[in-house]
Amino acid sequence: MRAAAVETPPPDAFPKAGKAETDRPVSEETLIAAERAETAGLRLVLVTGMSGAGRSTALKVLEDEGYEAIDNLPLSLLDAVVGEVGLKRPIAVGVDIRTRDFAVAPVLEQLDALTGDRRFATTLLFVDCEDEVLGRRFTETRRRHPLAEDRPVADGIAAERRLVAPLRERADLMIDSSRLTPADFRAQVLGHLDLGSGGGMAVFVTSFSFRQGLPREADLVFDVRFLSNPHYDPDLRPLSGRDDAVAAFVEKDPGFAPFFDHLTGMLEPLLPRYEREGKSYLTIAVGCTGGRHRSVFTAERLAAWLGEQDRRVHLGHRDIARDPQRAAGKA
């Protein structure tokens, strides 16, 4: 792995102070982002989140990218360590409820101080996960939740979620690991932090099952349940939207071509607008009932189109691996 370096956006990545191309005032957030991009030094990533969600895994991903990764550093030592190590290489620090001296207010105070330090480009990454999935992870690994020494795991998870809520609200980036494979999780970390690839806004495209719930990280959600359903064809049911037979079935639906044309026609002008506002990543979710056929094919087509537009694309299929036989007549 190559060592990660902070990528400074090109001069035209942010509008000049004063007026944007639409002749409206540039937002204060955009001007601050532009100023930081020009003046910030090495990147500092504070990684926090729910216990069991994948915070340690995120730190390992950053370590593989050349970061100095430090987990559970006592907050009283953070300033000294960042000052010494951070000037030499990018640094990632893991902070959670097990960290000595942990309290939300001091963490937020230190975050404010670091954000104002021009030596660093500081990012707060929050790794989240659904409570049910967290409970299952603790049960399967037979680990105790840090706040559930003498009570049910669910109570510990609920207490922790209340405790870290201000950090989640303040986070610059949030990754939900509930249904991500290890490879998908790694891609999310790299993409959200603009690592391992060229510059420009990263676009995440994912298919999903409405039956399993909306992806919490989605910025844009599109529903393709209006398309003919391959699930009701016994020959197509075991397949997925990646298979040619399913692709042909969905594509011949009279509603698909107009929908896809409208979708890409809408996204084409929107994507550069998101970039001009300083957005570093965008998540587009495409859903159908089972998350296996129609949404998968549409997500594949959308990712291919984005690639043709020279966009940085990360494609995932959240629910494709679920057993199609469980659907019992639904997909």
SSE order, one letter for each helix or strand: HEHEHEHEHHEHEEHHEHE
Number of helices: 10
Q: What is the CATH superfamily of the largest domain?
A: P-loop containing nucleotide triphosphate hydrolases
Largest sheet: 5 strands, parallel
Unreliable parts? 1-40, 325-331
Q: What would the average pLDDT be, to the nearest integer?
A: 82
Q: Kindly provide the name of the CATH class of the largest domain.
A: Alpha Beta
- Rg value: 22 Å
Domain RapZ C-terminal: 201-320
Binding site for ATP: 49-56
Region (Disordered): 1-25
Binding site for GTP: 96-99
Describe how the helices and strands are arranged:
Elements: H1 28-39, E1 42-49, H2 55-64, E2 68-71, H3 75-85, E3 91-94, H4 104-115, E4 120-128, H5 131-141, H6 153-170, E5 173-176, H7 182-192, E6 202-209, E7 220-223, H8 244-251, H9 256-276, E8 281-288, H10 294-308, E9 312-317
Parallel strand pairs: 1-3, 1-4, 2-3, 4-5, 6-8, 6-9, 7-8
Helix pairs in contact: 2-7, 5-6
Binding site for GTP: 96-99
Region (Disordered): 1-25
Binding site for ATP: 49-56
